[in-house]
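Please check our next protein.
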Amino acid sequence: MSVGRVLVALVLASAILAGVLVPACVDNDLEARFVEGLDLIYENRYADAEGYFLALSREMSRSKQPDAFAYKARSLYQVGRLEHLYLNHPRRAVRRLREAIKTNPQADFAFDARQQIAGIFLDQIGDYRAAALEFERLVHDFPERSDADRYQYRVAQCYFLLKDYDQARTEARILLNRWSNGKFQHEARLLLANAYYLEGRLEEAAKAHEQLLVASPKDSVRARSHFELGMCHQELGDTASAEKAYLSALKDHPRPDLVQMQLAALRKQIAQAEDPATPLTSPTAGKVYVPRTKTKPKAETKPKAETKPRTKTKPRTKTKPKAETKPRTKTKPKAETKPRTKTKPKAETKPKAETKPKPKPETKPKAETKPKPKVELPAQIPEAPSKSTSSP
């Protein structure tokens, strides 16, 4: 009796151990295969790692193991990271990361995947509206995170880049109301003031900058606010306040050369205004940074003279269809030509006898011609005696 009980206990124990050890071995095998893919990344073999993780995710889709979906999601997340950071395929990366989140929404990498998707739309693709929606999802799905105000500021920034200044101010106010002591409250106030400035609402922009300066922001934000406050004063015609604001911005501004250029243009404008010999210029003359000029209303254009209606053109006559061409008759095949008969070789011609040259007859020398005697004429010809007329 005791032996039977011992055997039963051993059988039960072995079954329990088998049920525990088999899943553990399977998990270890999957983890080891996942680590192999990570080793490819550490070896800088990014294309090989991408193919490896894609193959692993497809295999996990067909697997019936309990943790298969988790390893599929992790593999897709690694593929998305590779395509984003190393292979420069931003749209494919967005697709992989979204698929990874859909496969396992509660995974540890879910927040980082959404953050990467938003960053890809903002920095690589330049789709600011899609980026704003992704940052809004981050704020909505992870409100307990300490850096949630950063993503709310990104939402306002995206609408600012879209030139939807009203919505940008709305998102900035949400940040100021919800995270009044957050790290990005000063940046949100600066964005709000800039949105007023770019719409031409200079007095409201100047007021927003003054409220920001009262809040004692950090040096870089304070310098930018002073500079942009100076721009508002310059356009409003308050040159003294503008000069004071520029001088306050000069020390800590990230672009001191820009501040110096704007300050030089303002002082030139003040010198021209004090010189009675030169005509006064507009308050915005000599601007270097973000010039703003009021657009003049367009002059009314005279109505164009009525043009006469065009005469209707006669409809074209229909061309007659071409007569059907008869099919060509088949040409008879040429009769076979008989092979040419071989020509007999010509008889060899005897060489001609050499012709002796005929001797030329000798020409007799011409007889010598005797010279004719010359007839000498007398020097004087005697005159003939003249006949006398006298009678005898």
